[in-house]
Design brief:
The chain is α+β, with helices and mostly antiparallel strands. It has two helices and ten strands. A hairpin with a 2-residue loop joins strand 1 and strand 2. It is elongated. This is Secreted protein.
């Protein structure tokens, strides 16, 4: 003869135990990323993502005032099945939020990080050239010497004088 009462009593107890286990596992699952800083570089690592169509996922670095994943500086995750990572360089001082979204759409985790070191200045400005400069494509420039500038000026002056002479000759009345 079977007695169902112990099962009824153990059912709610089992449900409570399962709920407790999920509650305890929740924060661990939400903290599926590890964020660190080295100087002005922020890096994140995780092992929570699986590869989908050759991609692991994307990490986003959100600054103050940025509230959604798409507003941050996004970097694709790289790595292998044992772990994926991403990094941002030249990050200014402040408090940031790192969010990692896997390629399957699940969020691997969200974590705040404080950067206290300012990025190192990039290239120092160069002195402006003392002679003529001709602009180029993409902001490049060429510095021309004195002889080149004098020769170019002479050619332009000769062209202007020849044009004036030709136009003056054309306006002169012709007698046949």
């Amino acid at each position: 003869m079977r007695n169902s009462k112990p099962l009824l009593r153990s059912g709610p107890a089992a449900a409570a135990a399962a709920a407790l286990a999920l509650a305890l596992a929740g924060p661990a699952a939400a903290a599926g990323i590890s964020v660190s800083t080295t100087g002005s570089t922020v890096s994140v690592s995780t092992g929570a993502c699986t590869q989908v169509n050759g991609h692991w996922g994307t990490a986003s670095l959100l600054g103050s005032g940025q509230t959604s994943f798409s507003q941050g500086r996004q970097v694709a995750l790289s790595g292998s099945g044992s772990g994926q990572s991403a990094a941002w360089s030249d990050v200014g001082p402040g408090t940031y939020t790192v969010i990692v979204i896997c390629s399957n759409g699940s969020t691997a985790g969200t974590q705040s990080v404080v950067v206290s070191t300012a990025p190192a200045p990039s290239a120092s400005p160069t002195a402006s050239p003392s002679l003529g400069v001709m602009g180029g494509v993409g902001g490049s420039s060429t510095d021309y010497g004195t002889i080149t500038l004098v020769a170019g000026g002479a050619l332009v002056g000769t062209g202007i004088a020849a044009t004036a002479w030709y136009l003056r000759r054309r306006k002169a009345p012709r007698h046949f």
